[in-house]
Write a structure and sequence with these properties.
With 209 residues, this protein is mostly helical. It has eleven helices and three strands.
């Protein structure tokens, strides 16, 4: 459409490295961290921040902007802008054909970097990347989801526990029996203590198997 054509035209004035940074950012979500891109592309965080700040200034209207009060965190100005970049990331400049392995590579790079520095970005971001490649690398996914459940449990974040369980209910077969029971027990506890307990009593009970 016209908007996609406009955004693609703007991308052509950028250098290839800067386009790659934006494409990589699109694979990280609507909101992304400079650390994610640095790990994915094996660049220094300082360099990535410099390029992101430059890109924010030079494009009008801006494709990206910093998230106020969160240093090193940026967001796309429009969901459609992110969609255009994500299409390029997945399929190359043609925007069609078979998905590129490069997309999977970026998620792997980020998850490998987090093994060495697990606190660089919030744990929910790690879960996001692990979810993107769980069909290829289930081990990353299992470890990340288990850690995130434990983190939310420790914070008594019952609504978030319930949401996380519902999002991942269809993939419990990827977990070992002990881990599966652990997640189900945390979920059952969240349902019990959630402020809207009556609503959840009407839901189909889970099977602890």
């Amino acid at each position: 459409d016209d908007y996609a054509a406009f955004e693609l035209q703007r991308l052509e004035v950028l250098t290839a490295p800067d386009r790659l940074i934006l494409e990589c950012a699109s694979g990280c979500g609507t909101i992304f961290y400079a650390e994610e891109i640095a790990m994915a592309l094996e660049l220094s965080v300082v360099h990535v921040l410099e390029r992101l700040e430059y890109l924010e200034r030079m494009l009008t209207p801006p494709m990206i902007q910093d998230v106020e009060g969160n240093p090193g965190v940026f967001q796309f100005g429009s969901r459609l802008t992110r969609d255009v970049l994500l299409c390029r990331l997945r399929y190359g400049s043609t925007g069609k054909g078979l998905p590129r392995e490069f997309t999977v590579h970026l998620h792997r790079q980020i998850l490998s970097g987090l093994k060495l520095n697990p606190t660089l970005i919030p744990l929910n971001r790690e879960v996001y990347h692990a979810t993107q490649i769980r069909h290829i690398e289930p081990s990353f996914y299992v470890v990340s989801v288990r850690r995130y459940f434990d983190e939310l449990h420790a914070q008594f974040a019952w609504p978030e526990v319930i949401e996380l369980f519902e999002e991942n209910r269809g993939y419990l077969q990827l977990f070992e029996a002990e881990d599966k029971r652990h997640l189900q027990m945390i979920y059952a506890k969240a349902v019990r203590y959630h402020p809207d307990t009556e609503y959840f009593r009407q839901m189909e009970p889970i099977s602890f198997v």
